[in-house]
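Provenance

Sequences were taken from public entries as deposited. Structures were produced by running a predictor on each sequence independently, with no templates supplied. The record for GAL3B protein from Ptilorrhoa leucosticta is shown for reference.
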Amino acid sequence: MAKRVAVVLAGCGVFDGSEIHEASAVLVHLSREGAQAEVYAPNIPQMHVVDHVKGQPTPEQRNVLVESARIARGNIKDLAKLDVKGLDALIIPGGFGVAKNLSTWATQGKNCSVSKEVEDVLRAFHAAHKPIGLCCISPVLAAKIFPGCEVTVGHDTECEQWPYAKTAEAMQELGCRHVNSQVTEVHVDARNRLVTTSAFMCNAPIHDIHDGIGNMVREVLRLA
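Predicted structure for GAL3B protein:
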């Protein structure tokens, strides 16, 4: 019987939603492994809309569920309707939408809050001992909610290859353990059933990011 995996999106586009390549890679690898993806997103306004050509906010207003439906080809459900009982695992791709729409990490860092719907879903999977896959910036959600957990966002020393490495320091200040890893590698926190990989936290060729996400998906399914 195919494993059913909830994929939670945060909009459509790296600067104000889910990172499209990461979301696509998750769906491709789930399909390749014979798993059934069920896509969800919260029915809430985006924090803001970013012009991805200029990299600047615009006056537009958009909805996270409506925008996420672009990636899901319309086959998407309101996150409020997610029932952990019928699902085997959870995966949340990265993108700034995680830090803007699913939490306030973008503006408050380690002092952020996680949206109640997202926190409830994460806690439900965790309590049911069902695996959670997180990539790119989304491990900050686990760092905030599960003190003492182990995650990776790549490296903890900032450089050209790792421009967002200070994220690791902020997560450590929340009491979690950060494990340095390469872009194609994953870290598995067996106690918390968390599988994390750095994805676009690294300036790496897109095929390496795709491969790292594939390794994350396979580990999540192995634990499911």
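The chain has eight helices and eleven strands.
The mean pLDDT is 97.
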